[in-house]
Design goal:
The complex is a heterotrimer of chains A (about 350), B (about 290) and C (about 260).
Chain A (H helix, E strand, L loop, with lengths): L2 H25 L2 H26 L7 H16 L2 H7 L16 H23 L4 H21 L1 H4 L14 H20 L1 H11 L1 H6 L4 H27 L9 H14 L4 H22 L2 E3 L2 E3 L5 H16 L12 H15 L3
Antiparallel strand pairs in A: 1-2
Helix pairs in contact in A: 2-8, 2-11, 2-12, 2-13, 3-5, 3-6, 3-11, 5-11, 8-9, 8-11, 9-11, 12-13
Chain B lengths: L2 H32 L8 H17 L3 H24 L7 H23 L4 E2 L4 H4 L1 E4 L2 E4 H23 L1 H11 L1 H6 L4 H26 L2 E2 L5 H14 L4 H21 L7 H15 L11
Antiparallel strand pairs in B: 1-4, 2-3
Chain C lengths: L4 E10 L2 E11 L4 E5 L6 H8 L7 E6 L2 E2 L5 H7 L1 E3 L12 H7 L9 H6 L2 H20 L15 H13 L5 E5 L7 H18 L2 E5 L3 H7 L2 E6 L2 E6 L1 H5 L2 H6 L10
Parallel strand pairs in C: 3-8, 3-9, 6-7, 7-8
Antiparallel strand pairs in C: 1-2, 1-4, 4-5, 9-10
Helix pairs in contact in C: 3-5, 3-6
The chains are: A mainly alpha (about 350), B mainly alpha (about 290), C alpha/beta (about 260).
């Protein structure tokens, strides 16, 4: 299959995707649109997270911190001074946040940049270590961000959070950003830069010996991942229209971890599949936590059951199917072509 | 701040530190042999506390039966945890083990949530621990004094096992060279199970004392103490038992004193532990008892 | 004249243990030198110091007139010293050609931004890198395995691939750590010829560690012997094989082919 043909297929698929989104936007129910938005945002999150954990092989447990930074940055910049005044009842928000007010798109870009900036700062301590230490330091970072959000009342309104955000996020935003993230990140992974990251994952000493600078390569991945996580955080904020520090706990990290592990650690396609499964599944499983009526019986809802099921799924996957759904493979046009050809070949006996 | 208050805070710090020390030992022992951060370790606190409560309420056991029984039960849970979540992954890449640990932790917490409910339960504090001693202007709960004493006794018992018994020698060997120990004909699975038993029992003791100290227990009560105890283990030098004890006491003291001396920063209390962690990892990653990195 | 590569009085201690003591060596451009000695003599430690993986406790390492003692490994590679490893350290899950393409990373021109945006400049460079890598494989007779996973290759070819990967960094000096370990005699002869071909083509300087005496005597112009971290002899293969100190260091091992 020629490259040109593949490009045409890609463009056609994009048209199809956005055509579908248009239909849902027009004729879908509020519930369906909300789920689709959720899926879109989590695709961005999962794909950026997979860049670090899957492609680079680092156990980064602090994405919740970057998402929080993005969410708060975007919210604080896009809210009007009046809205901020309404929210900050304990004490007025600091200048210049009290007067600043920018268009949504600007707030998103700022969110990405803010998250990337913090990623830059912490990459110095974080990338000095590997393995479990890196896991704990990043976990600590995520926690510190959350605690700071809770305590910095003049900036973030503390535990009260920010309410009444304008619901800017629609299907075009969430899926547009998702598409951009997937395309851009996949291009990076397929490039020589991505090879350097994979080499670090496979054998860091050998990579060093072949001229790869691990700090540079990993910091690059870290910054890009944080950038998109920050933007997704901004999208999330303007989707659920209320944010508070309680939203950005390790729990959020855990959800992302499930998505990329079940999807296949190291595969972008896997991350997408994981995001779809668990965003959708998460919503769908909510019914387990609500009382259900079957005929004249009422089965009481069990709060927390969702997480039990998720944890079990994660455990089962990691114990028995460690590679997840896709392993490290991607779904590509070439792969589909070979499957199709085999199918055709099987029908015509040689 | 008056001298009395300061002394009170020192005592509080040592007491809190002793609990961190007990929990930290479990982390450090498992890490020493398996090179695994047992994320689910902190949740054993919760298991012990609930076990104790149910023994007392369902079976009307007096506390001096219920508490040791809960400790043994939690030790068994620790062994089960290894058997189910970690043993199948002995040959797997480290990241899989870490993920399994996180999954196990979440599973335990949410299973407890589903089975027991999220409403905090009050934990009984037996009269033995509830007396208040008055020394001058100081009012001290005896539990605050008993905790470090019990901790030290338990630690001495553990050190005896580790340094004076054959099983302990096997544990030390396994932490130095996993493969070689196996080649010496030692049943590693049993040694590892023993490690989990000891570490989990100590954590359980810490958990019960924690529950008496902060008598509202809930399924997620072990998360933050567990994390802090892990940080204590890193501060002391992960893999080193004495280091874990030192780190525990140090962290407890720091936490109490920082809040006492800088009350404006009380809300940042939990973040301090992480900041200390980041500091340690930056400047002396091998911890107090570890070899400085060349 | 400035020597090409020089180690001057290099010492490496681990706590109280002296792994390498007062070790000095000079290599001229284009030489093929062997570094031999019993196990634990400090040979791989010396390699690790040459490539920046370990820092000497004392002493200097000079490469083309520049003091590289404190440089990190990736910079030393960029300056022209490449190596293979005692235990194979290929990028197992990556394909054969991808293993080679990693070696081109340090000299890449286009930025990550160009990669992410899919700019033509980047695509051209990627094409160039792939072609260069395939050519390296061709010259080694491995081109037909380009898309194969590195870990699927037979052992002998994996060792060869490691060498090709190191050469792809365009080094001025190549350090080979036990290149024929575990190979059967046929494979050893083939690798011997391969190393000779490399030298003929590029005039590259080679320093190799080996235990197979027949291989070493056959291929090296000059041999340095280490024991307990120190140099004990240097000379031509004939001189070394009749040196009594060398023989006693190997405790009665006569220099014959070890399999």
């Amino acid at each position: 299959m020629s490259d040109k043909f593949k490009s045409r297929l890609n463009v056609a698929s994009l048209f199809l995707l956005f055509g579908l989104l248009f239909l849902f936007n027009r004729y879908g129910s509020g519930y369906q649109i909300r789920i689709l938005n959720n899926i879109g945002v989590f695709i961005t999150l999962a794909v950026s997270y997979n860049l670090i954990n899957g492609v680079c092989g680092l156990l980064h447990l602090g994405p919740n911190g970057f998402i929080a930074i993005g969410a708060y940055t975007s919210a604080l910049l896009s809210m009007t001074p009046a809205e901020k005044q309404l929210n900050f009842i304990l004490g007025q928000v600091i200048w210049p946040l009290s007067v600043i007010h920018v268009p949504f798109v600007v707030s998103l870009i700022a969110a990405g940049i803010a998250a990337a900036f913090f990623a830059f700062l912490i990459s110095f301590p974080v990338l000095r270590v590997r393995g479990d230490y890196l896991a704990i330091v990043t976990l600590g970072f995520g926690e510190v961000v959350r605690v700071l959000c809770n305590a910095g009342e003049r900036v973030t309104n503390g535990p009260l959070g920010l309410k009444g955000l304008y619901p800017h996020t629609n299907l075009w935003w969430s899926w547009g950003v998702a598409t951009l993230a997937v395309v851009v990140i996949q291009r990076l992974i397929d490039s020589n830069y991505g090879l350097a990251m994979k080499a670090i994952r496979e054998d860091e000493d050998a990579a060093r010996a072949m001229g790869v600078n691990p700090f540079r390569s990993l910091m690059l991945a870290f910054l890009i991942s944080a950038f998109f996580s920050g933007i997704a955080g901004g999208l999330l904020a303007h989707l659920i229209t209320t944010i508070s520090p309680a939203l950005f706990t390790f729990f959020l990290t855990f959800n992302l971890l499930i998505m990329i592990v079940v999807g296949g650690l190291g595969s972008t396609t896997g991350a997408i599949i994981g995001a779809v499964l668990f965003s959708w599944g998460g919503e769908a499983l909510r019914i387990v936590e609500q009382p259900m009526e079957i005929g004249s019986f009422t089965i009481p809802g069990i709060p927390g059951m969702r997480m039990v099921i998720f944890s079990l799924v994660l455990m089962l996957v990691i114990l028995f199917a460690r590679k997840g759904i896709m392993g490290r493979n991607e779904l590509s046009w070439d792969y589909l072509e070979s499957k199709f050809a085999r199918f055709r070949g099987a029908k015509t006996p040689q | 701040m008056s001298a009395t208050l300061f002394l009170q805070q020192i005592i509080n710090g040592i007491s809190l530190g002793s609990l961190y020390a007990l929990i930290a030992i479990g982390y450090t022992m498992v890490y020493g042999i398996l090179r695994l951060i047992n994320f689910a370790h902190g949740d054993l606190l919760m298991v012990a506390a609930y076990a104790a409560i149910y023994e007392i309420s369902l079976f009307s056991l007096p506390w001096f039966f219920a508490f040791p029984l809960a400790i043994i039960a939690t030790g068994a849970v620790g062994i089960l945890l290894d058997r189910v979540a970690y043993r199948p992954l002995r040959q797997a890449p480290r990241i899989s083990l870490l993920i399994s640990a996180i999954g196990a932790s979440f599973l335990m917490e949410n299973l407890a949530l589903v089975l027991i409910g999220g409403v905090p339960k009050p934990f009984p504090r037996p009269h033995f621990f509830s007396r208040v001693i008055e020394v001058g202007n100081l009012h001290i709960l005896v539990l605050t004094i008993y905790s470090p004493v019990i901790t030290l006794l338990l630690v001495m018992g553990l050190l005896y096992i580790v340094f004076k018994t054959r099983a302990g020698k096997a544990m030390r060997a396994a932490s130095l060279d996993f493969e070689a120990t196996r080649l010496m004909g030692i049943n590693l699975d049993r040694i590892i199970a023993l490690t989990f038993l000891l570490g989990s029992s100590l954590a359980a003791a810490g958990g019960i004392m924690w529950a008496m100290k902060y008598p509202q227990i809930n399924p997620f009560m072990g998360v933050l103490p567990g994390l802090k105890a892990f940080i204590a283990a890193v501060i002391g030098g992960i893999g080193n038992i004495v280091g874990a004890v030192l780190g525990g006491f140090l962290l407890g003291l720091c936490e109490i004193l920082i809040v006492a001396l800088l009350p404006n920063l009380a809300e940042y209390r939990d973040a301090f532990a992480f900041l200390i962690l980041i500091g340690v990892l930056l400047f002396r990653p091998t911890g107090i008892m570890g070899e400085p990195l060349t | 004249m400035n020597p090409f590569f020089q180690m001057r009085h290099v010492t490496r201690r681990f706590g109280g243990l002296e792994a390498v003591g007062d070790f000095s060596i000079t290599l001229e451009r284009g030489e093929l030198v062997g570094l031999i000695g019993p196990n634990g003599a400090g040979k791989t430690t010396t390699f690790n110091m040459m490539t920046g993986m370990l820092r000497p406790t004392a002493g200097d390492i000079i490469w083309k007139g520049e003091n590289i003692t404190r440089l990190p490994p990736h910079l030393i590679t960029a300056k022209g010293i490449a190596r293979t490893f005692q235990n194979i350290k290929l990028f197992s899950d990556m394909s054969v050609v991808e293993n080679i393409m990693v070696s081109c990373h340090y000299s890449i021109d286009s930025s990550f931004l160009a990669a992410m945006l899919g700019l033509p400049k980047h695509k051209r460079e990627e094409k160039r890198i792939r072609e260069h890598s395939l050519k390296c494989l061709e010259e080694a007779g491995l081109a037909h395995l380009a898309s194969e996973r590195a870990q699927n290759l037979p052992y002998g070819l994996q060792r060869k691939l490691e060498i090709v990967r190191a050469i792809a960094t365009r080094p001025g000096m190549l350090l080979l750590d036990e290149p024929v370990a575990g190979m059967n005699p046929t494979e050893k002869i083939e690798l011997s010829a391969f190393i000779r071909r490399i030298r003929e083509k590029s005039g590259i300087t080679i320093l190799l560690i080996e235990h197979d005496m027949k291989f070493v005597m056959n291929i090296c112009q000059r041999i340095r012997v280490m024991n307990y971290g120190r140099s004990i002899a240097e000379g031509t293969p004939d001189e070394i094989s009749s040196n009594p100190e060398v023989i006693s260091a190997y405790l009665g091992d006569t220099p014959h082919a070890q399999d």
